[in-house]
Amino acid sequence: MSAPPLFSVEFSPPRNAEGAERLRATRAALARVAPAFYSVTFGAGGSTREGTLSTALEMHAAGLHAVPHISCVASSRASVRELLQTYRDAGIRHLVVLRGDAPSGMAGMAGDFRYAADLVAMIREEYGATFRIEVAAYPETHPQARSPEEDLRHFVRKVQAGADSAITQYFYNEDAYARFVDEAARLGCTVPIVPGIMPITNYTQLARFSDSCGAEIPRWIRRRLESYGDDRDAIRAFGLEVVADLCRRLLARGAPGLHFYTMNLAAPTLDIWRQAGLPTA
Predict the structure, then answer these.
(1) What's the rounded Cα separation, in Å, for the pair 120 and 135?
(2) Enzyme catalytic residues
(3) For 156-186, what is each residue's pLDDT tens digit?
(4) Pairing of strands 257-261, 193-197
(5) CATH fold of 6-276, please?
(6) Which among 201, 82, 194, 87 is positioned nearest to 135, based on CA atoms?
(7) Over the stretch 219-233, which tens digit does the pLDDT of each residue have?
(8) pLDDT score for 174
(9) In sequence order, which ranges of the chain are alpha helices (DSSP H)?
(10) What is the per-residue pLDDT for 75?
(11) Could you give the count of Cα atoms lying within 13 Å of 73 in the half-sphere of its Cβ?
(12) What is the pLDDT of residues 232-251, one digit of tens each?
C-alpha cells in the first residue's frame, strides 16, 4: 500500500525586520493546513546563508519541521561542515541539497564541490543517515544542461550518492513530469519525486521566472494570460483554476505529494489547497 501524499511549502529568507514579520504571519496562516515541512531557500553563492540559517532555526524553535536548503557553489568543505554541525546541534535533520547558482557576474566561482551529487556524497560520508536529503529534479531539463539525457544522468547520480527524495522545478505540463519519473525509474531510480507547484498570480513575474529557470509556460496558458492584460483578478482566477486542476491530476497519476513555492505569501497557496481539495489539519 502506497504512503499518503505529503504536502510541503517553501519560503525565502526575509531581507529585513518587516519581511520577517510578514513571513511569520504567512507561516502561521499556512500552519492551519499542516504542511509536512517548510523549506527555506539558499541565495546564489550563499548570499542568504545567514538568513537561511536564522530563518530555519527560528521555525524549528517554533515547533515547525524546518528544512534548510544548502548549496555547494563557492562552498568549502569546512564551511559546509560548520553549517551542518549547527543544524545537527539544533536538532534539524532534513535538508534540501542543491548545486545552486553563482552570483551574477561570478559564474566561475570556485568551491570544493562541482555538483550537488558531490555534496550529497560528502554529507553521507561524514554524517551517515543523520539527515534526510532532498535534491532537485528538472522534468523539462535544467537550463544549463547540454541535453535531457545528461540532465537525467546528473539526477540519477544525486540519488545514487544518497538522496532520499526529490523536489522538481515547477512546471505546467504534467506529461513532462510523468515522463521524467518513468525515465528515472528505468535507470533504477525509484525515490519519491515530488512535483513543485508555482501559483499563477502575476503573469509578468511568472514569465520572467520561467525564462530564467527553464520552466515552460504552455502556449495556451501564455496566450490566455496575455489576453487578460492588466486585469489582475482575471489572471488570479484563471491561474487558480489551472494550477488546482494540475494538482488534482498529478495526485491522480500517483505523485507522492506536492511542494508549493509560496513566494512568502499564504493566500495563493491556500486558495489552490482549497480549490484542489487537499487535506487540512
Answers:
(1) 9
(2) 10
(3) 999 999 999 999 999 999 999 999 999 999 9
(4) parallel
(5) TIM Barrel (3.20.20)
(6) 194
(7) 999 999 999 999 999
(8) 96
(9) 17-31, 49-61, 77-90, 116-127, 148-161, 174-186, 203-213, 219-227, 232-252, 267-276
(10) 75
(11) 20
(12) 999 999 999 999 999 999 99
Residues whose CB is less than 8 angstroms from the CB of residue 179 and which lie 6 or more positions away in sequence, other chains included: 139
The grid cell for 107 is 559564474
**Is residue 19 scored above 80 in pLDDT?**
yes
State the Cα–Cα distance between residues 30 and 270, nearest whole angstrom: 7
Return all residues near 38 (Cβ < 8 A) that are at least 6 apart: 8, 9, 10, 11, 27, 30, 59, 64, 65, 66, 67
Beta bridge partners of 257: 6
CA distances from 280 to 31, 33, 40, 174, 273 (A): 10, 4, 22, 24, 9
Quickly list DSSP for 150-173: HHHHHHHHHHHHT--EEEEEE-S-
Other CB atoms within 10 A of residue 201 CB: 18
Site of grid cell 543544524: 87
Q: Among 141, 136, 208, 205, which Cα is nearest to 173's?
A: 141
Compute the distance between CA of residue 252 and CA of residue 249 in angstroms, rounded to an integer. 5
Whole-prediction pTM value? 0.94
Using the 8-state DSSP alphabet, how is residue 44 labeled?
Answer: G
C-alpha grid cell, residue 174? 504534467
Q: Is 105 left (phi over 0), alpha (psi -120 to 50) or beta?
A: left
Which grid coordinates are listed for 134?
532532498
pLDDT of residue 112: 78
pLDDT at 49: 78
Given a cut of 90, whether residue 109 has pLDDT beyond it is no
Query: Across all residues in the chain, what is the average pLDDT?
Result: 92
